[in-house]
Amino acid sequence: MREGDHTAGEPLIEAFDLVKTYPGPVRALDGLSLTVGRGSIFGLLGPNGAGKSTAVKILTTLTRPDSGAARVAGHDVLRQPDRVRRAIGSVGQRSAVDLYATGRENLTLQGRVHGLRGRALKGRVTALLERFGLDEAADRVVQTWSGGMQRKLDVAMGLIHRPAVLFLDEPTTGLDPDARTSLWDEIRRLEADGVAILLTTHYLEEADQLAGSLAIVDQGRIVASGTPEALKAELRGDAIHVELESLAEAPRAAGLLAGLAGLDRPTIDGATLSARADRAAAAVPSVLATLDGAGIAVASVTVARPSLDDVYLRHTGRTYRPDAAASPRLLEVAR
Question: Which fold has domain 233-332?
Fold first, then answer.
């Protein structure tokens, strides 16, 4: 077993009660704890300002917590930062590739930074280019590559030194659906290879597809955690979403629906009302009749199975808007 190898399933990322405050004061982390095992993908969800980036910065030794502790690949992030850095790969939201160098040159330079030389470096670069399907374009400047190819190169550069732990920050932002799906396949292969992956993403579908476990972070705290299926299973029934023709009618409509039997307390998000019901499809006629009787025009009605957005709504009181920090736009009614 080479240095950096670990037992399957062994915790490779551990955070304990992390607290971080910035001037303002802004409490970016307020007691965050999490564990990520070898050969698993852990999704960290939350809007901008929730604390995701701060947590990753601490775990990658880029900043220090005010209190709490963390270990990555068995090394303390405060006492052994150099060992942590050698054991991890990190792919930021912004691309780190040199657009005016070739793909092969980018990987070669990254390998040299990590101490690889000679035949070992050349073989590793070739292997990664082939693995990510970039070998045919390897000797073209990256500026001529597609966005999906550039993002794959980003990930390949993070893997050049065979890290035990990989941090992926918004890896598919800006990619088209085909490129996103292709990168998902590569991330799943890394999981199968035994890499521990901490994934931050603004795409709930991405977390649902990739993460074996996830945590929802809100205002520096984890407000829900578990497998995607377990979190969705906690929600009773299906969701009814009613889009009104008039935004001004939303509060009155929500008050009317709050009195319907079998329907959970509705929430308002713009001109859309959302509520849960054990038999959502059967409740739709009553919902429409109630609103029609009050002279409230409905643009559309949909019924949906529980989603991670519903989970987020339940635990934070607002729908999942990546660009919404702490100020909810979603209002609860009929308290």
Answer: Alpha-Beta Plaits (3.30.70)
The helix or strand, by DSSP H or E, that contains position 30, with its residue range, turns out to be strand 26-37
CA distance 149 to 137: 9
**Contact between residue 269 and residue 165 where contact means Cβ atoms under 8 Å apart:** no
How much is the pTM? 0.81
Token digits for 282? 């059967």
Contact 111, 121 (CB under 8 A): yes
Prior bond of 266 cis (ω within 30°): no
Domain ranges of the chain: 11-226, 233-332
Tokens of 154: 């980003």
The enclosing H or E element of 225 equals strand 221-226
Residues 6+ positions from 187 with CB-CB distance below 8 Å: 41, 155, 168, 171, 197, 199, 210
Average pLDDT over residues 313-319: 71
| Mean pLDDT (whole number) for 222-244 | 92
Unique residue bearing structure tokens 């409905």: 298
Residue 116: alpha-carbon gap to chain centroid:
31
Is residue 325 pLDDT above 80, yes or no? no
CATH number for 11-226 (one of 3.40.50.11440, 3.20.20.70, 3.30.1330.130, 3.40.50.300): it is: 3.40.50.300
- Closest Cα partner for 91 from 194, 227, 190? 190
pLDDT confidence of residue 234: 87
Contact (Cβ atoms closer than 8 angstroms) between residue 286 and residue 260: yes
Q: What is the pLDDT of residues 167-205, one digit of tens each?
A: 999 899 888 899 999 999 999 999 999 999 999 988 888
Count CA atoms within 13 Å of residue 124 on its CB side: 24
With a cut of 60, say whether residue 271 has pLDDT above it.
yes
> What is the Cα–Cα distance from 136 to 140, expressed in whole angstroms?
9
Query: CA–CA separation, 73 vs 67, rounded Å?
Result: 20
